[in-house]
Amino acid sequence: MERLRGIVDIPSGTSDEVVWSIAKNYQKIRLKAKDPSLVRAARRIAIRAIIDRTLEELGPTRMPMVRKLIDYSPGIEGEIDISSTLDNMSSPASNDATQIVMERKELKRIACVLIIDASLSMTGEKLAMATSSIAVLAQRLKGIEYAVILFENRANVIKKMDRDVDLEKLIGDLLDLNAMGYTNIESGLNAGIAELEKAKTPNRIGIIITDGNYTMGHDPRTAASLFPKLHVMMTTGLDAREDICAGMAQQGKGKMFEISNYEQMPGVLYNIIKTFHFRLSTGGGNANR
Length: 289
Prior knowledge:
This protein is of the alpha/beta class. The protein has eleven helices and nine strands.
C-alpha cells in the first residue's frame, strides 16, 4: 500500500475507502507504476472493489414471478393447482395422475443489450461499473440474456448475447481500456440491434449510456427507432445533448434518465429492467409499448 501511495493519492480511511480509491486511480497506477507486479496487485484490488461497489449500489434485487400451469409428471417441482385439477376431473372413475395440474412460478426471460459510450469521460472504473451492473444482475436474477457494447469511433462488442464470459476478466479488460475522442452513437446502436436479434427470447430491451454528443456517424435518433424498446441514461455535463438523448428515447419508445454520477448507474439499470420485467409478468400489455 505504501508503494501505491508513492504513485497516487490514496486516503487513509476504512478498507472500503482505500480499495475504492485504488479502483478510481487504477489508470494512473497502470501508467505510472514501473513494477508489473504492483500493477497486477492494484488490478485485482480494483476488480474486487468494483464488484463490491456494484453490489452495494444495487442493494436487494428481486423480480416478480410469473404463475405458470403445467401438467403433472413425477419429480416435477411446484404445487397442485386445486381449481384447475378439479376442472379436469369429469368423474371419479377417471381420476388419475394425468389430470393433476401443477402451478409453478417462473421468471420471464428477457434479453438486454447495454450500449456504453466509451469516449473520453467514460473510462476505467466507469466502464467497468456499468458493465458489472448488468453482469451482476444477470447472475443474481437469472433469466437475463445480455450483451455489452462499447463505442467510440466504432462499436466493439465485448460481451456477445450468445456467449458466456468471466466477470472478473471482463472488468479487468475494461479497466485497461484506453478511451478515444470520437463518438459514433449510430455505430453503437446498430451493433446493439444486431446483438438483440441473437436473443432466444422475444422480450428484448436496449439501454444506452451516453451524453448524446456524437461526433461521427449519422443522427442516432434514426437507429434508435429500430429498437423494440430503448432507454437512454444520459450522463450530464457541459457537452451533454439532451435533445439527442430525449429524441433517442422517444424514437426508441423508452425513457430518458439523467445520471450525474456513474455510481448511480447500477440502481437506474436495475429499475429499468425491473419495470420492464414487471410489465411482462403482470400481463398488463406489451412491455415494448
